[in-house]
Every structure is written in structure tokens, then in C-alpha cells.
Amino acid sequence: MRVAAVVPHWNRRDLLQALLVNLAQxxxxxxxxxxxDNGSADDSIAVAERAGAKVLRLxxxxxxxxxVNRGIQAATADWIAILxxxxxxxxxxxxxxxxxxxxxxxxxxxxxxxxxxxxxxIDGARIDGTFDAISRGACAYRCGSGKPDGPFWNQPRRIRMxxxxxxxxxxxxxxxxxxxxxxxxxxxxxxxxxxxxxxHDRWGLYVPAAIAYHQGSSTWGQWNKYSVRLIARNQLLLTxxxxxxxxxxxILAGQLLWGFVALCHGCAGAYLQGKVAGMRVARTLPAQRLxxxxxxxxxxxxxxxxxxxxxILEIQRQSGFDRYWRAYFWLLGL
Length: 334
Fold this sequence. Notes:
The chain is of the alpha/beta class. Helices cover 43% and strands 18% of the residues. The chain is globular, with a radius of gyration of 19 Å.
């Protein structure tokens, strides 16, 4: 069984160099390491080549989804680990995930990701993310984000969506349900992929013993206007592709609340630009990419999104409500 690491990358040679050193420390080595360079202006390519990685050079920044797809196409492995360039894996990360997916015959797996800023702080490590969920408001939730680590996050479970910050996938999964949708460019492309996994009854595992540390927003920064615009746009693309059979009120409530959060971070203009761009792009989506053409797909999406929202509500009740989710569930009367 061969495993490839696919690393989409753009600038920040320092992050890439640290990651490549980290990957060499895995107790179960990667058989291939593929760095897909999105047109870096620094010497990232030279750094990757010196470390022995295979480098795919893209002439310009095509986005996360395109870079991942090119990396998967170039890989010869049975399993693909998709890794952000700003993560650090514990030495047994890959071995732990491989053992779990082989035992349970899962299609993909992810572990616990902790914030790299200060994992040993006095009040305990903070969760960067575990697995993903999505609400009927078309807003994704990186489960556990910002919460203190603790027993609740140490329970393995089946999952329907894995964040592509650091996750392991069967190569055959991409062959059967298709690659990442490159119209998303960056952000929510992994949520789109997760919804397609649910439609095709493909499931994965959350394996908390596999730990990664993530710096987060290292390329663009938190609440960068570019990121906000893409996320706002891609939320509308998700609704166009999958949410046409769902109630409109949760979508309206979720999107307006997310816009208010963007406003509070000084990104109202970027939010509005994203929504306008989303409406424009959604009108150009080919009919075969819209789940609304299939009644069976719509039923599966509806059931999955309701299940996913219940997961968000359960986690918020267990770990304490974030302001956004408190307001969202209050508006829905839950």
C-alpha cells in the first residue's frame, strides 16, 4: 500500500521547509511527497526539490482545489494525504490513520488538529478543528474550532466530511465521485466534496489519536477580505448545487448572520462582493453539476444536512455556544 502526501503551496518557503522536515519524521514514511506550487514568487520550488519532493509547477495561483487535483493526478499511490503547508504532524499521524481506515474499511480519515500558536498554554490546548459539519443555513462549521481540548474530543466517531487541512483519502474515492470542484478555487471545496461523499454513501473516521498542529490563515491572515469574498461566494455556490430543496428561512438566517460577523470584522464590502459573484457564477453552472436534477440526490442531501446541523447543535450544547450558533439556533427556534 502506497501513500502520497499532496501539499498545495503558494509562497511562504519557511512554512514549506518546516513541513517537509516534519514529514520526514513520520514513523510510517510517505512513499511520495508532491508539492504543487501555485506560482510562488520566492524560492519555494528550490526548497521542495532539495528536500526530495516531486514538484508540480503551476504558472499562476489557480487556487487550492486545482492544486490538489493536479497533485492527485500525479500521484501513483493508493492513499492520498492532503496537507496544508502550515501544519505539523505528530510522528505517528500517518500510521495511526492508516491503521484506523484499514480496520474499519473507511474511505477517509482525519485526526484532531490543535492550534499551533501555544498548544501547552496553562488552560490547555485549543482545538483548531476536528471534522466538518454544515448547517441548513449553508454555513460550514469546523467542529471544535477555538474550544479547549478535552474528553469530548477524544472519542473516535464516523464522520461525513473531513477538512483538507490534514486528512487521508482513498485515491479511488476521487475516481468514483470526481475531483474537487475547481469553480470553488479555495475555501469550502472540501465541504462540497464532503456533500458528494454523503450523496454516494461514502463515510470516514475521526481519529483523535492522530494529532496535527495548525498555524491557520498563514497565507492570507484571519478575516482577510480576499478570503471573506471567496467564502461568501462559495456559500452561494453550495446552495445552488445542493440546497434547492431545503427551506429558505435557515439559508437566509445563516447567511445574514454570517454577513453581520463579516461586518464586525470590517469585511462587509468583501462579503457583498462575494455574494454578487456567487449569484453570477451560480447562473453559469452546467446543469449536470446541480444536484437538483436528481430527486434521489436531493433527498440524500436534505437528510445529510439535517443530520449535520443536529451534530452542530449537539456539539454547541456540549462545549458551550459560540455567539453565531447561539443566534442561528435561536432564530430557528431550536
